[in-house]
Amino acid sequence: MQDSNPITDIPLAVDRSHDDPGSRQLAWAAVPRLLLALGFTSIPVFADGNESPHWAYQPPRQETLPEGIHPIDHYVRLRLQQEGLAPSPPAPGHTLIRRLSFDLRGLPPTPEEVRRFLADDSPDAWTTLVERFLASSHFGERLGQNWLDLARYADTSGYAADRTRNMWVYRDWVIHAINNNKRFDQFTIEQIAGDLLPNGGPAKKVATGFHRNAMQAKGNNPRKEEFRVKTVVDRLKTTGRTWLGLTLECAECHDHTHDPVSQKEYYQLFAIFNNVPHLGKGYDTHGPLMDFVPHDDNERRKVLEDRITALRKAVPRASSPGDTTLLGIWAKGHVEKDPEKFAPTGDLTITAVIRTREKVADIASKYDWKSKTRSFVFGIGGEADKNSRPGHLFAWISSTNEPWNGAVIHSSMPVNDDREHHVALVFQAGKSMKLFVDGVEDKAARVTGNVPGGISVSARPLAIGAGYTNSETPNAFHFQGELRQVRLYARALPDPGQMGTTGAEIQKLQGELASLRRKPIKIQVMDELPAPRETHVHIRGNFKDRGERVHPAVPAALPALPAGAKANRLDFAKWLVQPNHPLTSRVAVNYHWQHFFGTGLVATAADFGTMGEPPSHPGLLDWLAVEFVKGKWNRKDLVRLIVNSETYRQSSVQSPRHRERDPVNRLLARMFRSRHPAEQIRDNALAVSGLLVPAIGGPPVFPTQPGGLYEETGQNEPGNSNFTWKDSTGDGRYRKSIYTYWKRMLLHPSLGTFDAPPRQVCVARRPVTNTPRQALVTLNDPIFHECAQAFARRIAGEHPGAEARLEFAFQQCLSRSPDHEEQKRFLGFADRGGDEAWVSVATVLLNLDETLTRE
Amino acid sequence: MDSLGHHITRRQLLGRAPLALGSVALGSLCRAEQGVPGGLRHFAPRARRVIYLFMSGGPSHVDTFDPKPVLSERHGQEMPPELIRNHEFAMIKEARPKVKGSPWDFRPRGQSGTEVSDLFPHVGKVIDEIAVIRSLHTDTFNHDPAVMFMNTGSVRFGRPAMGSWLSYGLGSENSDFPSFIVLVSGQNRQPLLDSYWGAGFLPSRHQGTTFRTSGEAVLHITNPPGVSRTERRRQLDLLRWMNQRRHAAVNDPEISARIAQYELAYRMQVAVPELTDISNEPASVRRFYGAEPGKASFANNCLLARKLAEHGVRFIQLYDKGWDSHGSIRKEHTVRCQSVDRAIAALLTDLRQRGLLDDTLVIWGGEFGRTPMSQGRGEGSGRDHHPHGFTMWLAGGGIRPGIVHGATDDFGYFAQKDKVHVHDLHATLLHCLGLHHEDFTFPHQGRDFRLTDVFGKVVRTLLL
């Protein structure tokens, strides 16, 4: 075949790696190819061999259907009838609940859920189950997982430097939007143009992270502009695949060869997305950023605050002890006469009750650094020194008058809130310096310098409620407000507020409270330049070779923008979801169909063009698309419609006839059966073994990964990502896989092994492979082994006899009981090897095809 | 079986095993069992496998295989402005950069008399096995796009690497290893990205597998602590029994494939550690390569590459990092060359002695060359990235040995005579493996994609 014939070889050269819808369709698909081979360079709308325009550019029409049959079942059975096939019987109950649970929640059903469902013989048992799973907050995670593939969501920038960036806020937005059943048209508009919505607010701006998921290289001249252009190119490609099912990217360098997008039209679309600011330089090259305070857990915060208040009230206020080390008590501002008096040289505690709004005020001082007479000072605001914190407690202690020879402490929390506070300084010579607020140590206080071994005696007499600045009498830092019960001890009191164990408890609660109050982070959002960039055709796709000037517009083969539209991103987004748009609703419905049936009604989900596969059930695709729009783009309604059909509930068992007549299941005479996606493989093992931490959202986590991976390829270097993997401790190890740090240039290997995409670009459909390395992961990866061990502990721990253990293990992992033969075989297996044998049982169960597969 | 017939067979296989066990994997399993090579091959190949020595960062052509006496004569003078007009450089910011002569001497080597610098004395000794191409040129001058371009024929993400293409097109000739294996050595500077050996739009089983140089060669190849090989066998026996029952119940051919993959994994658990342990090679062989067991090095990787080649691994790619000598090139290139020179020569010699070189194509080169101009001054000076003309070399696998193909201009700036673009190189490599680059396609997003995009011509003078 050295001298190939471009025409006769055409149909055979088509290697449809995933399906083959039949020779008729292949011949159809080959037409444009033939035309190309014959020298036609551009084949616009009339590609399918007859004179009607390509189906996908015509608005969908909804046919009137017979009563009494589910629309999906109507269309599917009609086609089956034509092909002489019958639908499969319903799958068994435990299979159905597993199917639905994985499809809607990405997790297996619990044995209790299975029991309840199987025991429910009411006619609406199934719809009740559907409603329950639809209401689960894992619904947004599972459907979101598909969307994040399209959105090319990742936690790093991509390219060589591949730095971490805060995209997870967008990821959480997707999950919540799906959980809250945000209308798909709104969902679309907010992600493409939430920043341009009048009264949009920060949440809608977060949504625009969708198009900030584009990879971003560090930009040095002249690459900065090149990489900016690449992000726009990526946005077009992604928009085309996600909403339009259109291979827009083909027209970047020349007119599209088989779909109706000219190169000029490509750059008209480009102009719509070309007005995002591009700032910074080098590693700091970035698009628009927004300050975002991560979601506070308001409920928890309130609980904590109430508890702290209650605890504070319960302890006697400001009851500093009276003992032999107590040097003196002052009820208000005061100056001693004798500088030698009240001049401890070793350990020291000062307590006081204050109420003030002052930013700078001394509580007790024998310190005048301008006169080079230093001893100790305790107060608020560090005498306005440049390194001090206004409104925060501070203390300076020096062991010599001159030069300064000691330590400084600054508190982490302000006390000038006009509320009463019990405050204390505790100095243990040579060892420590601490500040206490309301009896609780401020562990976040910052100490600088070495804690001195003693305190010098200065020539300044003790001043209460004032301080010194180059003066023999107190002349500065006067305490305005209330100052009471100032006490001075020649001892380091362990508990100056006399809080007892309550102090430690308050401290713990405060720690948790502080972790709830996060600092704002910079997140990536879209923004629009006040004056749009001038856009030209890039000749042959070269951004430096500027051709004809173009203005924002949409391709002529698609509906026009409404009259008077500005053709900015917002108008474009609204145009996508205008009711008569022929593509958006079909494409959206088809992606959902792909989720529930493995393959879309259009198998090439991201290509509805003339080279894409025609729909297997055109009438059904259109019916669903119209219904979706009529139903106000209600995603959960669409899901209900699909999973409540009998077609969805069919058995996935293949018969010889199926294999003979419809090997790739385009006719849907059975349900598809396929290995779980990477995330569900791991999440299932975590759930079955009881290790799963099911929390929703938050910054990415770092489940165990083999050490040294980033180092081997230089991914960790400061000049590159400047970041290395550190396994999470605690909950982060057991969160759902959707929260795993998604590094584009080195994805967690166990995710990658199961075909999770690195999401460098928009992914419309994942491949499903079956490799030996997958077996090595589920058998040997420490994560999976830990699951097997934990599962074994559960099996052995909760159940006395071997039979009960096996029953539990099967129910937990497979939602069914072992049959007689299985029981015999497993019990024989477990009989050898003591408790360790149950780890082996767990390993076998977690590796079963039945476990790894959505049936 | 002619290739036409083979297409049809593949199609039928595909039809029966949608999405799952793809044609080539199934093909390769069958072949491994029946010992029949084949796949998508269009005609009889000269090469059956590839060892690609990738010098990541860009080795300097004018200091290694492309002698340019003019550079020494004009050392320190301004580069002729007409040569570099309108050119931009990655790092050199001077308006009038200066010529930099090579710090190393060149001399003719072997029967062929091909000139090689003193950086590669050992490779010089085997130069008669090698075809040096002095007229390569590429499209881009930054590392990651250039490495992507060299490996995938595109600067964009999402395209398959050459090794993935070959894994897809030709399958594997062994049953215990992946068909595309990547080995890494050298000094960190530019990171290596997964996408350099990614499968792009091809099924992900075709992506390169990195064999690690320390710890487990393949991730998770070792049983967890406390699980003996006997116990694993016992587990797998029960697992297989269960999976076979499931298969009988639901009739999904995918389950048979899964059973086979678990057994393959079990075999790999023995085969991989055995093969990757170079300490079981004779000491004389290790010395010959300069390999030291337990140490991560290019020499170890060369020895391992030979072992993998013997085991029928289709595409073995060695990445050696640290060739990006913007500064102190005298020192840096000396270090890099010393760590690869002996091992490369040993690899070629060893392959020859074992009769493997005739059907193993060895490729040496980086993502681009380095500028004839100096970056910086004096001892600390180096050379910048250079895409317009540089050197790569090929050996074995149907390549005409002992020749020099093409030339750059007097300054080593532009490829001038018999220019070879990266696409041409790809077309030639595919040709050596029995594949027509224009017919070797994969449909994706509405069109058939090729490694060579819509370009490339086979460089026939390089072929035997």
Written account of the structure:
The complex is a heterodimer of chains A (855) and B (464). Helix content of chain A is 36%, strand content 11%. Chain A has 855 residues and is α+β, with helices and mostly antiparallel strands. Chain A has five domains: 1-40, no CATH class; 138-293 and 527-661, no CATH class; 297-310 and 499-517, no CATH class; 316-495, Jelly Rolls, CATH 2.60.120; 673-855, no CATH class. In chain A, the strands form five sheets. Chain A has a seven-stranded antiparallel β-sheet with strand order 3-13-5-6-7-8-12, with no helix packed on it. In chain A, strands 2-14-4-9-10-11 form a six-stranded antiparallel β-sheet. The longest helix of chain A is centred in the N-terminal third of the chain and has 22 residues, at 223-244. Chain A is globular. Chain B has 464 residues and is α/β, with parallel strands linked by helices. Chain B has three domains: 1-39, no CATH class; 47-213 and 296-462, Alkaline Phosphatase, subunit A (3-Layer(aba) Sandwich); 218-281, no CATH class. Chain B is built from 13 helices and 17 strands. In chain B, the strands form five sheets. In chain B, strands 1, 4, 5, 6, 7, 8, 11, 12 and 15 form a nine-stranded mixed β-sheet that branches. In chain B, strand 2 (106-109) and strand 3 (114-117) form a beta hairpin. The two termini of chain B are 26 Å apart. Mean pLDDT of chain B is 87; it is low at 1-38. Chains A and B meet through strand 18, helix 24, helix 27, helix 28 and helix 29 of A and helix 1, strand 6, helix 8, helix 9 and strand 16 of B.
